[in-house]
Automatic annotation (TrEMBL):
Gene3D superfamilies: Ribonuclease H-like superfamily/Ribonuclease H (3.30.420.10)
Protein name: Tc1-like transposase DDE domain-containing protein
Higher taxonomy: Bacteria, Bacillati, Actinomycetota, Actinomycetes, Propionibacteriales
NCBIfam families referenced in this protein's UniProt entry, alphabetically: transpos_IS630
Annotated ranges, domain Winged helix-turn helix: 95-153
Length: 344
């Protein structure tokens, strides 16, 4: 199909083309020249001229599109989009936390008195540019005002000061991966759930990492649970390996606020700065994407056979990210993290 094929044009545009083409022919232009100038087929122009001679300008008008008219108006459709994109079902006294086609159908029936089938609701949502997705879950305790202040008032001066003294900013976090964590899908026979054999023993690997907007990743495997001593050891190595001032941004974990940690930070005389994110706001931390990548995209897709293999998979996933700084930089493209690049 040609780029200028008339079948790609809407009805109103085609009507204007028909009127224009016929008008030029009636003024004495050759059909071939009109067709070439407008990117049309010569036979189409001949048909339009014949229709004009038989029925006048009325014959050139766009005809109504066949089929039943939509049950929802444009305004109603826009309202459905705003409801699904901007609110949760429980805000509408619906007893569920995720939008389903059935819940959207209930909203449409309640608000507009229009009954739609589930397939019709699905087509409507696709038309609005929506698809079923796994949502990010956020703590209701998160303070929107504190988050806004962090983005607009707290972080920009931190970034400016770091740039002034040549410091690198890292965002850090800890995570634990369990051997019974599984992710991903596999092909199988319809009606027969595939079985992947793995160990029945349960064990975990604890890790800490830090990422920068330049694509750097530093990590450490932690033996036992995270405490002030282990966190402090990670901070010391981070400062030593960078060889320049470091700003590390972390959450409010008790180990991050321990007395011995604060004492060491003070002893660095500004070479190491520790900053805490607002409470219950992991979406402000790009290091969360490290764990999603390692846990869900790497470790969770393997059949686990034992502790050593499990640990090796976690380490391999982290080292892979170290070799691919473009992926680490991509973590910062999350819309919730736009404030970081905006202040760069």
């Amino acid at each position: 199909m040609r780029e200028d094929d008339g079948r790609k044009l809407d009805h109103k545009t085609l009507e204007a083309l028909r009127v224009r083409a016929v008008g030029q022919v009636e003024k004495g232009a050759r059909v071939e020249d009109v067709a070439a100038a407008l990117g049309l087929n010569r036979s189409s122009v001949f048909k339009w001229v014949a229709a004009y001679h038989a029925g006048g300008k009325k014959a050139l008008r766009a005809r109504p599109v066949p089929g039943r008219p939509p049950k929802l108006s444009g305004v109603q459709t826009e309202e459905i989009y705003q409801i699904v994109a901007g609110t949760n079902p429980d805000q509408h006294q619906l007893d569920f936390g995720l939008w389903t086609r059935d819940l959207v159908r209930q909203i449409i029936a309640t608000r507009f008195g229009v009954e739609l089938s589930l397939p019709s609701v699905g087509r409507l949502l696709h038309k609005l540019g929506m698809s079923p997705q796994r949502p990010l879950h956020r703590a209701w305790q998160s303070d929107p005002q504190a988050v806004a202040e962090w983005r607009e008032q707290v972080y920009p001066p931190i970034a400016a000061e770091a740039k002034k003294k040549g410091a690198v900013i890292f965002f850090g976090d800890e995570a634990s991966v369990r051997s019974d964590y599984h992710s991903g899908t596999t092909w199988g026979v319809i009606g027969r759930t595939p079985v992947v054999k793995t160990t029945g023993a349960r064990f975990s690997v604890n890790m800490i990492s830090a990422v920068s907007a330049q694509g750097k990743l530093r990590f450490s495997i932690v033996d036992g649970t995270m405490n002030a001593t282990r966190f402090l050891d990670f901070c010391r190595r981070l400062l030593r390996d960078e060889g320049r001032p470091v700003v590390l941004i972390v959450d409010g974990h008790a180990a991050h606020k321990a007395k011995k940690v604060r004492k060491w930070v003070d002893s660095t005389e500004g070479r190491f700065t520790l900053v805490h994110l607002p409470a219950y706001s992991p979406f402000l931390n790009p290091d969360e994407w490290v764990w999603k990548n390692v846990k869900a995209d790497r470790v969770g897709r393997h059949a686990i056979t034992g502790p050593d293999q499990f640990k090796a998979l976690a380490v391999a996933g982290l080292r892979r990210l170290q070799r691919l700084p473009q992926i680490v930089r991509g973590f910062f493209a999350d819309p919730d993290l736009a404030y970081i690049n905006a202040a760069a």
